[in-house]
Amino acid sequence: MQQSRRTFFKTAGAAVASATLLGCGRTTPAMSAESPLTLGMASYTFREFKLAECIQMTKRLDLTKIAFKSFHLALDATDAEIREVRQKVTDAGLDLYGGGVIYMQNEEQVQQAFHYAQTAGMRVIIGVPRHDLLDLVETKVKETDIILAIHNHGPGDEVYPTPESAFVKIKDRDSRMGLCIDIGHTQRMNLDPATEFLKFKERVLDIHVKDVSHSSAEGQTVEIGRGVIDIPRFLRTLFENNYGGVVSLEYEKDSKDPLPGAAESIGYVRGALAML
Questions:
Q1: What predicted TM-score, i.e. pTM, was given to this entire model?
Q2: DSSP sequence for 195-250
Q3: Top CATH class, 3-27+39-274
Q4: How many degrees, rounded to 5, is the angle at CA 234 between CA 228 and CA 235?
Q5: Using an 8 Å Cβ cutoff, are 229 and 196 in contact?
Q6: For 175-196, how does the pLDDT look when each residue is reduced to its tens digit (9 = 90+)?
Q7: Which SS3 state, helix, strand or coil, does residue 117 take?
Q8: How do the domains of the chain map onto residue ranges?
Q9: 152-165 burial string, b = 16+ CB within 10 Å, else e?
Q10: Within 48-192, where are the H helices?
Q11: First CA to last CA across the chain, in angstroms?
């Protein structure tokens, strides 16, 4: 990618962030049916904030799809509590499409995860099930028609460090079992996210989009456009291959004040999408 293009998108992202945080109302086009890809929010971005603030900040970014981490809807919440939270999300005009990342270390946690998702009306679990639990997970997928998208966590992850490490475990299973490719952790394994998507595209069911500072274990989250990932190329690859899932921002930097960086990141992504 030429440096001039990178500079353009970085500047565009910063401009969108500034306008959004000044409270100027809708500053970017919503990701509607006319948009090449569907953007969403992984609520881990707002892990230091309560539910109401998480919802408010997601709306300020003009996003309508959200996947909840347990900070915003506890895994052990009662059915009544789950339904109450779902109603708040719906009333705010958001679609609680998924939950995660949800870890499954035993059979009880598998049962809990699928009951939680089903009660909340989630269509996708972004999960990390232990290998020996995949038979049970497949049974629950078939029972509930809830998608399982296995999330890779990069260097140091002994279960699913790469997209391939998840793919080999589910490739012969129900097609509703697939991958949530985290492109930041993929890049930290020194793997190209676009290439990894192409390898496993038939089973990529969700995506966590972010940028990182280095293509190694030392890589840290940075604002999208400021790191080493070729985001425009990645998004074009998704578009050209008819990816139909959600592309959710998971902005791990600045946990106590994530909105400026999240806004810049979403602005960069929208700028790149506008160029497709």
A1: 0.89
A2: HHHHHHGGGEEEEEE-EES-SSTT--EE-TTSSSS-HHHHHHHHHHTT--SEEEE-
A3: alpha beta
A4: 125
A5: no
A6: 999 999 999 999 999 999 999 9
A7: helix
A8: 3-27+39-274
A9: bbbeeeebbbbbbb
A10: 51-60, 79-91, 107-120, 134-144, 163-170, 183-188
A11: 14
